[in-house]
């Protein structure tokens, strides 16, 4: 090979490089997985000009864009507007901010499109125009769902479009008060060679819609798909671009749905909205306190009520346990709605410190209503429910338990206990078992005193002083 040929080959090789669209890592050859952030399918080819350093020339800002003291900035130009769905407004922090971009994610079939169509119809019924862009369904399919849920109104405009430029054209032509795009993974930019739903396409679509929202002041709600791990599909930059990331989830075996925010530039991220899926669409549940209680007429063995926190909302939940002799060498441990690892720890604490023989028994623990409990404040109720079934005593309907159990058998105070006890008292639970300040309550004394108080056939003697 001559020197000229070798030089040309080296120049051709230097003209192509590859970069990760997630973290910016660059390399000389394509790889399926980025070496820096370990993301799959995010490495794309770029030209050598993109890697070259260019000098940045300072530009003086315009008079309207000059920096001003933060004390002179007002919020009167960005008032919130209600969506007509109080639970959704609660999660957003009081309503939708003009120019905000909200990403609504969730598993397939959980009800994302139904919720946003209901929201669009309520805003449109106030007389304001709403543009609903469906990139997954035809206009006839959206119409059928709107008829079923009662979302028909003349101010709700539909468009079935997958091209980004055409979507932006619809927004400019209609000039709506609210835009809903379903979904960001199915809209594509014709100027991008990537496939729809790919990292580069999702990034371009999200960036273009965000620029449109900020320039026009029109809030845009975007539907986002999720992966099998529950994360939003596409590059992580999608969550950085939008203002609010709301996740809509729920158990397929239950009609209850929750919406939570993992990112919110305009409000808190610890609020939870509660909904119920019905045959006529989706319905708000402003007070879900009665959904997770069985309300048996007589006290039942193996049950105990606790107060769980869903965001800032305190929700009473009944925990049921069943302990029965096992007929197999390896007893079964079946849980539903609670963490199996925490139940195993509680069983070990009960057997070690209370003398309850659970090694040869099958143990089943479940929540009423299908609510999933993951916080440690429910440990005490789980332990009491198991002890109640094992020692055959029942708690009265006025008793609830709140607290975390340590490996040493100590019962610790739960977070925001005042709010939990207040909600319990509102629903008639006058006696709340918890670790009082300045005292040490152990699972040993707790189980024994409860058994002594409620296992006798006589009238209940009241809650023991712990």
UniProtKB/TrEMBL annotation:
Gene3D superfamilies: 3.30.230.10, P-loop containing nucleotide triphosphate hydrolases. GO terms for molecular function: ATP binding; ATP-dependent DNA damage sensor activity; damaged DNA binding; hydrolase activity; zinc ion binding. Residues 362-466 are annotated as: Lon-protease-like. A motif (RadA KNRFG motif) lies at residues 263-267. Residues 77-226 form the RecA family profile domain. InterPro entries: AAA+_ATPase (IPR003593), DNA_repair_RadA (IPR004504), P-loop_NTPase (IPR027417), RecA_ATP-bd (IPR020588), Ribosomal_Su5_D2-typ_SF (IPR020568), Ribsml_uS5_D2-typ_fold_subgr (IPR014721), Rubredoxin_2 (IPR041166). GO terms for biological process: recombinational repair. The keyword DNA repair applies. It comes from the Bacteria. The keyword Ribosomal protein does not apply. NCBIfam families: sms. Plays a role in repairing double-strand DNA breaks, probably involving stabilizing or processing branched DNA or blocked replication forks. DNA-dependent ATPase involved in processing of recombination intermediates, plays a role in repairing DNA breaks. Stimulates the branch migration of RecA-mediated strand transfer reactions, allowing the 3' invading strand to extend heteroduplex DNA faster. Binds ssDNA in the presence of ADP but not other nucleotides, has ATPase activity that is stimulated by ssDNA and various branched DNA structures, but inhibited by SSB. Does not have RecA's homology-searching function. The middle region has homology to RecA with ATPase motifs including the RadA KNRFG motif, while the C-terminus is homologous to Lon protease. Belongs to the RecA family. RadA subfamily. This is DNA repair protein RadA. It comes from Agrococcus casei LMG 22410.
